[in-house]
């Protein structure tokens, strides 16, 4: 199965807000859509200790948010 993760180059000490609800049109990051449709859901803050290339989860089934852990391979679609 092809990974649905989105690969992003993150910058050291920059804040990123990963969408945990799946409604954002700016995946993998929050665009504020959770406020209208998913009461109680919030983005998850991420800050990298270094510049690096990483895979952000888009299926929202990761157990290591916001990083893709391969759980998408266990989802029935
Ligand atoms: S739009 Fe999904 S957490 Fe904000």
From TrEMBL:
Transmembrane segments: none annotated. It comes from Candidatus Bandiella euplotis. Keywords: 2Fe-2S, Iron, Iron-sulfur, Metal-binding, Plasmid. This is Iron-binding zinc finger CDGSH type. The keyword Transferase does not apply. InterPro entries: CISD (IPR052950), FeS-contain_CDGSH-typ (IPR018967), MitoNEET_CISD (IPR042216). SMART domains: ZnF_CDGSH. Residues 2-40, 41-76 form the Iron-binding zinc finger CDGSH type domain.
């Amino acid at each position: 199965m092809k990974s649905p993760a989105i690969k992003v180059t993150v910058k050291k000490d920059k804040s990123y807000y990963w969408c945990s609800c799946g409604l954002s049109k700016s995946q993998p990051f929050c665009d504020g859509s959770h406020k209208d449709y998913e009461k109680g859901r919030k983005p998850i803050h991420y800050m990298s200790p270094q510049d690096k290339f990483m895979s952000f989860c888009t299926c929202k089934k990761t157990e290591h948010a916001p990083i893709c852990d391969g759980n998408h391979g266990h989802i029935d679609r």
